[in-house]
Amino acid sequence: MTIRALVVDDSLQLRRSVMYALQRLEDVVCVEASDGAEALKKFQGSTFDIVLTDINMPVLDGLKLTSHIRSGAQNRTVPIVIITTEAALEDRERALKLGANAYLVKPVQAQEVIDTVKSLLGR
Q: What is the CATH number of the domain that holds 76?
């Protein structure tokens, strides 16, 4: 079964490191977006099995992206992983309240990303 992952971060380097980690799993197809607005456009006409997003991005941040994804009926169950530099407890709580399933603080190790994705997708 192919996993479609949407990786959203305004840093190309960080997007690539997350995508590299995900490709250690079998049958993963990564689609990337540089901000939340671009990610929402990619959601139109496409489906994803998991979303990994930063919080701090231009145009549309990761928290607003999470809220938008959760507002659509067909996307309510798509796991969302926040990967951010925001380490404060209130940031974590806000993200989880908006519908994120996991919250990882940068710098994040590849194995942590892999373990989180495997856990959320039941692999």
A: 3.40.50.2300
